[in-house]
Sequence to fold (293 residues):
Amino acid sequence: MSQPRSGPTVALRCFGADLRRRREAAGMTLQGVADVIKKDRATPARWENAETVPNPRMVAVLLDLYKTPVAERGEVLHALEEAKKPGWWHPWREVAEVGVIDLESAATGIRSYAPGVLPDLLQTTEYAEALMSLRNPYEDPAVRRLRLELLEARKEHTIEGKPSTGNGDRAGLWVLLEEGTLRRRVGGAGVMARQLDYLEAHIADVGSSVAIQVIPPGVPHPLAISLCGHIEILRFKEFGMGERLIQIGLHPAMTLITDDSDAVENYRMAVDVTSGFAPPRFTPLPLTSKDFG
Fold:
């Protein structure tokens, strides 16, 4: 057994989910599998939950147990090799928010509602640095530099799709902002001015993977969105990967992730309905860099 070296990847999550589907189709319980392979029940559970990776010999035993057709075994073993690969964020694994970054980087679409500060993927480096200083003023500067490097890599990998990332498939990022988010100063006037310019560049670029809508103040939008907090809804192309809802807190320990379909649908409806009260995509921001002097 080996541990994923940089936290679970979507490939590992899909591999674990495939093991679960095959076990259930074979009519076996986790305890039944554990009894046959002479392990405790937690061992196959960890494989299915993408917490650890079984070795190829053990996978072969499981495939025998689940009566997997010969034609499918090679595909499963290939998926195992993919699942063992570390995530692209491995060089920054010490500061990566595992559980979020793998989902974000594999998503084909991300919907975000940000009532307080800008979502990470829309932050300039200096805006992000100012925000990190507010959240944790005593953080080691070396650690903060790693966080900033990782943020730039996340943007490049997820929404910019530069050739250096090997990721030609950019995620579509659709962000719904409260106007107050844009007016809330993070860092100095220059930081905010350049941040607004960065957002405007995305809005003006018809080829950008980023769509931004801003809710004007005073608009009587539905109460539901006011109860959401900062959220993201992610969708994927991988079979068996349902949408994920991420609720983002002040500290990573308070970040909540769920694939509960009722919860995802509830929040998506709140965002969808509210977006109807905001000017459409490509509408210039209601304030410019000049508003910050």
Observations:
- The first helix runs from residue 10 to 25.
